[in-house]
Structures are given as C-alpha cells and as structure tokens.
TrEMBL record:
InterPro entries (UniProt xref): Oocyte-zygote_transition_reg, Prot-tyrosine_phosphatase-like, PTP_cat, Tyr_Pase_AS, Tyr_Pase_cat, Tyr_Pase_dom
CDD domains in UniProt: PTPc (cd00047)
Domain Tyrosine specific protein phosphatases: 283-358
Domain Tyrosine-protein phosphatase: 104-367
GO molecular function: protein tyrosine phosphatase activity
Region (Disordered): 1-76
One Pfam family it belongs to: Y_phosphatase
Organism expressing this protein natively: Mesorhabditis spiculigera
PANTHER family xrefs: TYROSINE-PROTEIN PHOSPHATASE, TYROSINE-PROTEIN PHOSPHATASE-RELATED
Protein known as: Tyrosine phosphatase
Domain of life the protein comes from: Eukaryota
Length: 397
C-alpha cells in the first residue's frame, strides 16, 4: 500500500547532532575474522595477467597483525568476462580493494553530514512521548502515516518509508516501540500489511533498556495490545536467529493475519561469548538477507526493520541489501555514497558511524568472494575484512 504524503513545514531539525546512536551499544554489526590465505591466492601473487596490471593493497589497508601476509598484497585483476553484470561486480571489487578501509573512512567524512533537503519534522515534535530518542528526528516527508480508527488515535509513529528505484523490497525503518507506541506499532503492521518484522536488537543490552516487549516470547502465549490480539503460534531457531510466527487479530475482525518476526538471538550471542555491544557479523547479515528473502518470495508485502533507534543497525542492514541489489542488477554502477544519501533522505540519521559505513562494504565484499570463489585476491579481501574488524573493536570501546 503506498505511503500517504505528509504535509511539510519549514521547521528545521539538525540531523547530525551527537545522538544516542553513537553510543557503543548500537555501533552496528561486527565483522568476521580473517579466513587465512589459500594456496590459490598465494600462487596468484606477483602475476601480471595480460588483461591488467596487478595493484598493491595500501599499507593502510593491510590486515593488522597478519602473520601470513608480509608486505603489500598484490591485487590481481580477475579474468575478463563477457557477462556485463559480473564485469560490474569485478570493477567494484577491484575499486574497493584499491580504495581500502582508509579510503572508505575518508569517503564517510565527505558524506556523513548529508541531510535531506526537507528537514521538516513537525509530527515528531508534536509527539514526544512516542519517540524513544528525542534527538533522532522523524522526517515528515517520508514518515509512515496511520489511519485513526477509534477516538483518541493519532496518525504518528516514528517510522519512515525507505525505497530504492527498481527494487521490489520496500522497507519501513522504525525504532523499537516505546510503551506508549506499542499499539501504534501493531496498527502499522496491520494497516500496511507487514509480512516480516526484523528486530536487530534485544530489549536489554549491556544493562540498558533498548526496547519494549511487544510480542509474546513463547509458542502458545498471547498478548493484548489495545484492540489487537497478538498470538505466538510457533518459534523456530536457525543459528543466530529466532523466527516467530505471529497471528494478529484486531477487535471486530473475523479474519486474522499471519506474519513473522525475525529476531537476532541474544542467547546465541552469549553462548559464543561475543562482544555484547556489536551483535552481528557480515556472515550473519548475509544469512539474514537470505532468510528474509526466502520468506518474502512467498509473501509479497512490506518489510519492517528496527533496532533500538531504527537508524544504526537498521540503516546498516538496508544499505548492505541495497548495495547488493544495485551491484547485481547491472542497471548502474554500485555507488555507496549515492545510496547513503538516498537512505538519509528518507530516514534521518541513518548510518552515523564510520564503522557502520565500512561494515556495509565489508559485508558486500564478503558476499562477492563467497559467490565467486577464487575470482578475487582472497588475501586482499581477507585483509580488508580483518581491518574492518579492528575498526569494530575500536567502536566497542
């Protein structure tokens, strides 16, 4: 169902003031460890194929403490291909490895101040009790508007539509509901026919409240939120994710709807003894994309994404998926700065830290290497991911 346009005003709200999203507990996903150099990659070092001269990975992009790699890494161009999409992927991988983590950090400095041309956020200002973080505005132009059904209901929820041209998946990026907005959350799910809710944060992290309990945790349990009956039909665990099958039924309606809530599993995080403040890795984000895609092919509808604030981990995930979609569509060269601005123009404050920005590229690079094994200089890809991991460790502190 298409979003309704909200009226805008000239009220301005700063999009880049220091926010709670900059706290370490929502710095975004962490990257996987280095896999090590394969024999294939080692044999390819130093070769100079006729289709292009090898490039050297800059000192700034070398893996910190990499005992297996001595000196600069030779970036060997992949074999030529007649497939235009693969050629585009090749060009992006080569450009990314040449740019390195250091170059991406500089790129982030150039774009991080970007704001939507229309900063009006009047509905946000008028509903302070429904905003989890008062410094994180919700743009009027792209906000999700609810239809009041009973007296006392308003049309506001801290959520925005996020769309990419020629891309079938439409995201709603939102905060984890506060107690005063749980009913509005379920109103949004019902009105806009949400088939998937993806939760990238736990309600409690590192002793801090990050969300409210808006769904029953165990199969067979139910909750009532305002006029909505929320029934947990099934709980399934797949590695680090828990999928809940939820039945949603509003008062006065004879037909319920089924949806799923896919949540990162905090129990798995504790079992693996990972850093509690950075719960996701590139491999898990890619696995989550596959998990969501598998269900959405069967159930066409909008996908609702949220973390605590709906801008850090949520924005990071959306940009990983958008960059992959752009890269493999073949319609135009993949352009992360352009996508970053496009997302920020729809969801204010999305992706605030350089680690989140670097992580997006690391996840896509990881995907390309896995999809095309042996095609790219594995030592260079692993060094890039390892350096991103070191950046993530700094973000934890």
């Amino acid at each position: 169902m298409p979003p309704k346009k909200a009226k805008t005003s000239r009220a301005k709200a700063s999009q880049d003031a220091p926010t709670r999203e900059e706290d370490p507990d929502d710095q975004g996903p962490a990257t996987p460890g280095k896999k090590g150099e394969t024999k294939r990659a080692a044999k390819r070092k130093g070769k100079n194929p006729s289709h292009g001269a090898p490039q050297l990975l800059s000192k700034e992009s070398e893996s910190p403490g990499d005992a297996a790699t001595k000196g600069p890494i030779v970036i060997v161009p992949p074999p030529t291909t007649s497939d235009p999409i693969l050629a585009g992927v090749d060009a992006w991988v080569q450009a990314t490895l040449t740019l390195g983590v250091g170059g991406l950090k500089k790129q982030f400095l150039d774009v991080k101040g970007y704001q939507s041309p229309n900063q009006a956020a009047t509905a946000f200002a008028a509903n302070p009790t429904k905003n989890r973080y008062p410094e994180l505005t919700c743009l009027d132009e792209t906000r999700v508007k609810l239809t009041p059904e009973v007296p006392g209901e308003g049309d506001y929820i801290h959520a925005n539509w996020c769309r990419l041209e020629n891309h079938p998946t439409v995201y709603i990026a939102t905060q984890s509901p506060v107690d005063a907005s749980i009913v509005d959350f379920w109103r949004m799910v019902w009105e806009y026919e949400i088939v998937t809710v993806c939760q990238l944060s736990a309600n409690m992290e590192d002793g801090k409240v990050k969300g409210s309990n808006y769904w029953p945790a165990a199969a067979g349990q139910f909750q009532n939120h305002g006029r909505f009956f929320v029934n947990n039909k099934k709980v399934e665990t797949e590695e680090s994710f828990v999928t809940l099958t939820i039945e949603l039924l509003p008062d006065g309606c004879s037909n319920s709807r089924m949806l799923r809530i896919v949540q990162y599993d905090p129990a798995a995080k504790e079992q693996k003894k990972e850093a509690p403040l950075v719960p996701l890795k590139t491999t898990r984000v890619l696995r989550l994309i596959r998990l969501l895609d598998r269900g959405d092919k069967l159930n066409k509808g909008n996908t609702l994404m949220h973390c605590s604030s709906g801008v850090g981990r949520t924005g990071t995930f959306i940009l990983v998926e958008w960059l992959l979609a752009q890269l493999y569509s073949g319609r135009k060269p993949a352009d992360l700065p352009e996508l970053y601005k496009k997302l920020r123009g729809q969801r204010a404050h999305a992706v605030q830290t350089e680690f989140q920005y670097v992580f997006i590229t690391a996840a896509v690079l990881d995907y390309c290497q896995a999809k095309h094994p042996g095609r790219y200089t594995e030592a260079a890809v692993n060094a890039f991911i390892a350096e991103a991991k070191e950046l993530g460790k700094t973000a934890e502190k």
